[in-house]
Structures are given as C-alpha cells and as structure tokens.
C-alpha cells in the first residue's frame, strides 16, 4: 500500500496515470495546434515523477525534441516549455537510487540548443516581457544546473569549449551560464580554475557588446570566489576601467561607436546606445563591488588603480576609480596599514608628482559626470601623505 491507498487501488491509479502519460506523449504532443502541444508538454512536465523510470526513459527521445522546439518560441511559450524541461531533466538525472537515464553525450544536443537561448535579448520596453523573460532565463539555468549536478566536469568542459567558438550567442550563453553556476558548483569546478581564467583573458579584446557585457558580470563573480589573482586579475580590472571610461560624448558619436563597438557588422542591429550605456553602468558597479565587498581584491587593486588614473583613454573612469581608491585607503588607514609601502615597492607606479598633476588638471570640470571634482578632492585628501612635502604645503596655502 502506498500513499494510504490499498495496493489494488494504487495499481489502478498507477495504470491510469501511465495511460494518460502515453496518450499525451504519443497523440497530443504531435498536434498541429500550438496551444494543444504546449498544454500537453506542461502536463507531461508535471507527471514525470509519477511514471516508472522505464516508461520515462522510453519517452525521452520523443518528448525532449518537442520541449526544445517550444523553448524557441515566444516568451510565454518558452517559459512553460523550459519549466517542463527542467522537471524532466531533474527526474531523469537526479534519482537518489538509480543512475541517470541520459549519458552526457546524449544531453549535448539539449545543451547546444539551450545555450543560445540563454543569451536572448529581453526587451526593455515591455515590462510584462521582462518578468517572463527573466523567469524563462532562470528555468533554462535550472536545466544547466541539474545537468551540472549529474555531470559537473563534463558540463564545465562543454561550456569552456563553447567560449572558444566563433558564435556570439553561444559564447554569451556559455559565459552567462558559468556566471550562474560557478557559486553553485564551486567545489566541483575548482580544478578548472586555470582553464576558466585563460578563457576570460582570451576574450578581453572581443568586439561584441554582448560578450563584453557577459564578461564584465562574470569577472565580478570570479573575483568574489577568489578566481582572480596576479596579472590576470589586473587585466580583468583594466577591462572594467576601460568600459567605465565610456563618455557621454562617445555615446553620441556614431563614428566612434562604429569603430569601437560595431566592428562585427552581423550584430550591428542588436547593439544600441542604451546597451552601451548599460555596459558602462555594469562595469562601474563591478569596480565598486570589487573595492567595497571583496577584501581579497585589495591586493590586486592597491596600488594598481593608481596607474589607471594617468592614461588619457581612461579619463571617463577617473571618478569611479577615485571612489574605489578612497574606499581602499579608508580601509587601510582604519587598519593602521601605511600607504607608502606598496606604492614605493612598484616600479610601474606613476610618480607622486605626476599623479598630483593629473588629478589637479582634472579638477577643471567640477560638473563632470560622477561628481568627478568631489571624488578627486576626497582621494587627494587620503593620498596626501604620498605627495612631496612642498606640494602638500602648496596645497594648504593655495587651496
């Protein structure tokens, strides 16, 4: 007897459920009517835990292609199909008492189909679609997570290989999926840390706006889990600073946009000024998160950020960089750590005189974006002990 039912009644119910499952699978999922197919898939997704594993295994070759096809439809349909696919994979791969019903090689076609869908651009204008699109994205990531729990190393290598492909949608999807899964599969993926860092380094000069956005978000997640250190970490920080330096003038200069961001003509129509502005915002927020919330990044950021104040190309990012430096200085001084030691130990640091002159020149525009003048004055106050005494006396007398 199960679930309070006598065995005879349980057998009747079980037989009825099996018959309904087979009817939905063999008849209604093949309907020409989209609504009928979708309703059938939705019902099957809720029934996968009620049928025998042998029946489920025999159904996989028919039901998976149908679900994948529906995942490619509009957001309303895709969400329902992705949710059902998540339930199906969960029932097929994560049984406590039996091995997975699918080998990883059999799952490859599923993952290859889903990966570009992760990178689908969600309209920013229609709020109802934003909500549904995010729900669909989460269901797709649940599918990858279930696969990762069953085959962690295989999935990691699959995603890394897709990052080396030439297809933008696959690269963006793979980067987004790694960002989503890294905190959840941290222990299983630890041995792949070096490979992941090398992949990220190889993509830092990509021209695709979508890839740059995905990289910026992934860099913050990697840093928060101590995946970045040394020179590779400095390259990642410089990537964030470079895109934080996008100016409002850049956004209004079509020639600059085409030369810097639209070099891949196949994706030109997908790129917008709003997207480029969003990239800048993501990188600025990422830098502040590194400086404020991740203590381990202090060894990378200080005094490296001082180098990034000098280059002309990074002028647009100086306000954000100064915010980060202020936070680092505040933390170091609260711990009674001197600022001199690391600054003087590096041969690549700008001289105190050059740093002072650069910051002083940038004060010419007090109304610049990001409260530039305020951020510069604040950071100069914290860095005062680095400057020669005669400059400090001049500052006190004249300013």
TrEMBL record:
Residues 53-399 form the MROH2B-like HEAT-repeats domain. It comes from the Eukaryota. SUPFAM superfamilies: ARM repeat. GO terms for cellular component: cytoplasm. Pfam families: HEAT_Maestro_2. This is MROH2B-like HEAT-repeats domain-containing protein. It comes from Triticum turgidum subsp. durum.
């Amino acid at each position: 007897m199960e679930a309070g039912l006598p065995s005879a009644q349980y057998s009747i119910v079980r037989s009825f459920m099996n018959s309904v499952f087979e009817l939905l699978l063999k008849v209604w999922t093949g309907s020409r009517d989209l609504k009928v197919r979708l309703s059938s898939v939705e019902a099957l997704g809720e029934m996968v835990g009620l049928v025998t594993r042998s029946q489920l295994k025999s159904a996989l070759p028919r039901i998976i292609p149908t679900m994948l096809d529906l995942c490619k439809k509009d957001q309303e349909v895709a969400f329902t199909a992705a949710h059902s696919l998540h339930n199906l994979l969960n029932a097929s791969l994560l049984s406590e008492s039996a091995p997975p019903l699918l080998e990883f090689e059999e799952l490859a076609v599923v993952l290859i189909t889903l990966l570009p869908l992760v990178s689908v651009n969600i309209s920013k204008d229609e709020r109802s679609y934003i909500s549904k699109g995010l729900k669909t994205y989460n269901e797709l990531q649940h599918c990858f997570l279930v696969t990762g729990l069953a085959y962690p190393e295989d999935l990691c290598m699959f995603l890394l290989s897709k990052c080396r492909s030439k297809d933008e949608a696959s690269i963006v999807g793979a980067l987004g999926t790694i960002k989503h899964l890294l905190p959840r599969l941290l222990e299983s993926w630890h041995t792949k840390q070096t490979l992941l860092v090398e992949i990220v380094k190889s993509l830092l000069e990509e021209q695709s706006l979508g890839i740059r956005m995905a990289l910026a978000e992934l860099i913050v997640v990697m840093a928060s889990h101590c995946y970045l250190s040394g020179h590779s970490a400095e390259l990642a920080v410089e990537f964030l600073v470079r895109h934080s330096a996008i100016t409002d003038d850049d956004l209004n200069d079509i020639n600059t946009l085409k030369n810097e961001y639209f070099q891949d003509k196949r994706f030109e129509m997908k790129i917008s000024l709003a997207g480029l502005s969003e990239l800048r915002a993501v990188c600025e927020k990422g830098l502040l998160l590194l400086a404020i919330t991740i203590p381990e990044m202090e060894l990378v950021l200080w005094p490296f950020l001082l180098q990034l104040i000098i280059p002309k190309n990074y002028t647009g990012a100086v306000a954000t960089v100064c915010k980060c430096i202020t936070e680092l200085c505040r933390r170091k001084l609260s711990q009674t750590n001197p600022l001199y030691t690391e600054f003087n130990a590096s041969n690549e640091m700008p001289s105190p005189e050059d740093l002072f002159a650069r910051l002083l020149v940038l004060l010419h525009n007090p109304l610049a974006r990001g409260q530039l003048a305020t951020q510069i004055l604040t950071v100069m106050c914290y860095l005062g002990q680095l400057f020669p005494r005669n400059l400090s006396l001049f500052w006190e007398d004249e300013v």
